[in-house]
Amino acid sequence: METATNFPKSVILETHELTRRFDSFTAVDGLNLSVAAGEVFGLLGPNGAGKSTVIKMLTTLLPPSAGRGTIAGYDVTHQSQAVRRAIGYVPQALSADGSLTGYENLLIFAKLYDIPSQRRQQRIRDVLEFMGLEEVAHRLVRNYSGGMIRKLEIAQSILHRPQIMFLDEPTVGLDPVARNQVWNLVQELREDYGTTIFLTTHFLEEADSLCDRVAIMNQGKVITTGSPTDLKAALDTPNATLDDVFIHYTGAELASGVSYRDTARTRRNAQRLG
Ligand SMILES: Nc1ncnc2c1ncn2[C@@H]1O[C@H](COP(=O)(O)OP(=O)(O)OP(=O)(O)O)[C@@H](O)[C@H]1O
């Protein structure tokens, strides 16, 4: 049994100079982050900033080149099994199998997570109910809407009741109604189960209303971290939005000449649901 290192209980995720290089290119450059248990934490940044690479390292899918990361007191490099038990992960790419029903997808994950066979059915019923998917559970996933697929993917990743959930662009490609539903479910997860949420998103308005704190990343480095309220107040612009904060720190809109959000939305829609 792996033992968690001595670590303040209120901190569930910590990174120290976490770095990932791909050959000579540094995608994540000396990241120092700390996330409290029960927080909704948003990692924001333009395309290519390094957000997904951070998530992949924290979810043990990609080894760091240097530095370290700890989840619930377990080291992501040396205690990867314990980390995997503590986390849920909803990747950017589609992770549900379209040729199976929602129920069958969940059953695969229940086995993957080693949920004892006598408890599997109840756990699956619970998550289907929590996600509002009971009625479609026995339909093939290829006939689901984008919103239903996303909910199923979240359901898959909470079967083992993780302490912390990683959601990489959870609402990409969804219409506003489905997006809202997903955000509400994320909030309920935190409220009902105290689950910590670590997410990336291009929807800054939603990050503003949902996240307790955000970090803005650019070119592999975190430039600023704080609550949306504090970051907006620090700008000295009347009625500043999180978009203003984002542009202030990254210059993203200025660099591309087109709306950052439009570009992100179009690209993701095509990639995810095309
Ligand atoms: N396996 C890889 N090999 C080489 N370069 C990579 C690899 N994975 C990511 N990168 C590069 O690292 C940088 C960060 O990529 P990453 O996907 O983490 O960014 P991101 O902030 O998640 O962007 P997006 O918002 O587009 O998802 C990019 O320049 C990307 O091309």
Automatic annotation (TrEMBL):
GO terms for biological process: daunorubicin transport; doxorubicin transport. The keyword ATP-binding applies. Its main location: membrane. SUPFAM superfamilies: P-loop containing nucleoside triphosphate hydrolases (SSF52540). Keywords: ATP-binding, Cell membrane, Membrane, Nucleotide-binding, Translocase, Transport. GO terms for molecular function: ATP binding; ATP hydrolysis activity. One of its GO terms (cellular component) is plasma membrane. Residues 13-244 form the ABC transporter domain. PANTHER family: LINEARMYCIN RESISTANCE ATP-BINDING PROTEIN LNRL. InterPro entries: AAA+_ATPase, ABC_transporter-like_ATP-bd, ABC_transporter-like_CS, DrrA, P-loop_NTPase. The keyword Cytoplasm does not apply. It is a peripheral membrane protein. This is ABC transporter-like protein. Belongs to the ABC transporter superfamily. Drug exporter-1 (DrugE1) (TC 3.A.1.105) family. It comes from Tolypothrix tenuis PCC 7101. It is found in: Cell membrane. The lineage of its organism: Bacteria, Bacillati, Cyanobacteriota, Cyanophyceae, Nostocales.
